[in-house]
Amino acid sequence: MRKKLSVVAIIFLFLLTACGKGSKPDAVVRKFCNSMKEFDIETMQSCVASDGDDIEDTTDSGDDYQILRDYIEDQAKNIKYSIEETEVDGDTGTVEVTFEYTDAAPLIIESYRDLISQSLRLFLSGASDEEVEEVFNDIFEEKIDSVTCETAEVTVTFQCVKEDGEWLIEEVPEDVNSVFLCNMDKAYKKIKEALSDSDDEAADEDVIWHDVPIGETIELATINITVDGCEETDHLADDYSEVDASDGTKFIVFTVTIENTTKKSLDFDAEDITLVDDKDREYEVYEDASLYVDEAFDYTELAPNIPVKGYFIYNVPNDSEDYYFYTFKSGTDDGYKFYGE
User: Fold this and answer.
1) Measured between alpha carbons, how far is 330 from 258 in angstroms, rounded to an integer?
2) Residues 140, 145, 147: CA angle, nearest 5 degrees
3) pLDDT value of residue 17
4) Which of 44, 55, 80, 190 is the least crowded, having the fewest Cβ atoms under 10 Å away?
5) How is 128-167 classified by DSSP, letter by letter?
6) pLDDT class of 198 with cuts at 50, 70, 90
7) 316 in Cβ contact with 252 (< 8 Å)
8) Under 8 Å CB-to-CB from 328, ≥6 apart: which residues?
9) CA–CA separation, 37 vs 8, rounded Å?
């Protein structure tokens, strides 16, 4: 999910070296704007000066759902623009442009809000990326009919430069990316902020919490999980590599057995298993654990009905005590706190 809510990298696709023609800078800006309407990435790139390396068209990178990319491409034809003013000072110039475009932020926010509300169920059911995308497609198609997208307006100034006698756009203004993306970038920012706020204000009172001691097996929707033991250490090592905990920290190592209780293979991601200590500080699993402990759980494919023993490893301050990791049972209000002692 976190992978799907990070994808506004398309903003940087314009930074390419190429050329544009015209005796005044408004010609290259007009060419750029017409190419936006046609969703012609290559021609847009050719209008921009940059010293950077070529950047691949991220509309085909798979970082966004295809239905969303198709929608944005379809809305490009609705972009309207008018060149308000052009100024030239030697080999530099500015072109002021007013855009009217589709503001799809409400549609995108509402669609992701519904998807996020189903994220825990999808994760615990072992849904694949393709299945999650199918859920998003259904949500998005329904929201297209129910969410109103207004027309937005913005005025921007293009900074232009003449190189080898030809005018180029020096750098694409940030607001132009918003125009091209129908405010998708702004929608993602709001979604990220909302997720951060919801994490801080989670309605704990709606969850029925169960304390789970070492040795007790809990049956979740798709897996059984048992904590077999827990220990603290300042050193991790296998036959080939080792690491010491940084000053003032320690490693907490939970020995865990997990069994996939479904009839199909299940992808298990330990990054979703958060540890909480006595000071209510939260920690994700130590990201480099698998480099030093072969059986450290990371992103693991679980075959049906074959118990797998491994480790959840966390790097925490030395003063962390009374810690536990937690998870939920899909379709219920039950939450489980697995304690280390």
Assistant:
1) 16
2) 80
3) 34
4) 80
5) -HHHHHHHHHHHHHHHHHHS--PEEEEEEEEEEEEETTEE
6) low
7) yes
8) 120, 124, 207, 220, 334, 335, 336
9) 19
Q: What are the tokens at 57?
A: 């068209």
CA separation for the pair 219, 229 (Å, rounded): 18
With contact defined as beta carbons under 8 Å apart, do 299 and 268 qualify?
yes
Give CA separation, 192 vs 117, 122, 197, in Å. 14, 20, 9
User: Residue 174 has which token pair?
Assistant: 């940030």
HSE toward the beta carbon, residue 130, CA cutoff 13 A: 0
Q: Which residue has the higher pLDDT, 121 or 240?
A: 240
- Beta bridge partner(s), residue 335: 209, 328
Can you give the residue ranges of every domain in the chain? 4-200, 205-339
The model's pTM: 0.52
Element (H, E) at 169: strand 166-171
DSSP bridge partners of 4: none
**DSSP3 helix / strand / coil % (the chain, rounded to 5):** 35, 35, 35
Measured in whole angstroms, the distance separating CA 124 from the mean position of its chain's CA atoms is 19
- The strand pair at 299-302 and 92-102 is best described as unpaired
Please name the CATH architecture into which domain 205-339 falls: Sandwich (2.60)
| Phi, psi dihedral angles at 176 (to 5 degrees) | -70, -35
> 3-state class of 197 per DSSP?
helix
pLDDT, one tens digit per residue, over 21-61 is: 446 899 999 999 999 999 999 999 999 987 433 323 434 44
Query: 282, exposed or middle or buried, with CB in 10 Å at 0-12, 13-18, 19+?
Result: exposed
DSSP β-ladder status, 208-212 and 334-339: parallel
What's the start-to-end Cα distance of the chain, in Å? 32
Q: In terms of Cα–Cα distance, which of 294, 272, 292, 293 is closest to 283?
A: 272
pLDDT digits (tens, 9 = 90+) for 232-289: 999 999 888 999 999 999 999 999 999 999 888 888 888 889 999 999 999 999 988 9
List Cα–Cα distances, 225 to 219, 300, 339, in angstroms: 7, 14, 13
